[in-house]
Amino acid sequence: MKKIGARLAVAAVTGALVAAPQVPAFAATRTTVTISITAKSALPKVTRDVWVIYRSSWGSATISGTISTGTAGQAVQLFAQRFRAKKPTPLGSPVVLSTTGTALPYSFKVTPTLATHYTVELFTDSTESMPALATSAPATVYVAAHHKFSGGNRCARPTCHETYHLRVVLPASALRTEKAKKWYVYFGIRYSRTGIPLPRTLRLGAGHVHVSPPRRISSHAFAVTLTFSFFIGNRGARWAFFPCTKDTEAKDGLGLPGHHGCGTLRTVSINRVYLG
Length: 276
Fold this sequence. Notes:
By secondary structure, the protein is mainly beta. It has helices spanning 175-179, 249-252; strands spanning 3-4, 12-13, 16-17, 26-27, 38-41, 50-53, 61-70, 75-82, 89-90, 95-96, 101-110, 116-123, 134-135, 139-144, 146-151, 159-169, 184-192, 201-204, 210-211, 215-218, 221-231, 236-244, 267-269.
């Protein structure tokens, strides 16, 4: 903070020093601007992480927050630092503030393809790029591969044989790593003579499941086939399954950071949102 104090004025008057009246000191203050930031998607958070699904209707998130104090004409710019990028880069065009005030809201829609850190910066106007008046903390959005299922048959009795085809859609840069992973499949079945509710839990390796070797479909997709064989007799039955591979977000930028139970948990709830 810069201080401007009174100066002592001196003058020679018949060999004497005469001091000018003291002027009260004052400080020039500058308002500190802060920017809050939050990431949000349509999917529930997993271990506090925000995530989306690649190339799906759940593929977008919102970056929003408030500017503590702003002036009409100043510009708000979103920056994105994608997985393995060395520095943030501007994303889209800046938004010019139309009003002057406090707690001014902003919002940006983003569709990341790999894990991405987002920040927001405030500039004096839309033509300025340096220096920023304020910069937010980072907010991260993670990306999961898109799993598309097809297949399924009307079961024969007493032993049901089911075949499902799984197509995994993902960024091309992650294809090689993800295609080489081992698959873990959780399966559950519930029997009933009347209404048939879904099983409450799924068990690793149940259902006599077999997963075919993966086959590349395009630069953005590969496929595996899952076959199940399980006894139902003459009972009504309803089944469910959940295939997964272990996350390696630090290696290829896909999935969530850390581990989330895939292949280590023996059973999972039918309501579990994510396994990785």
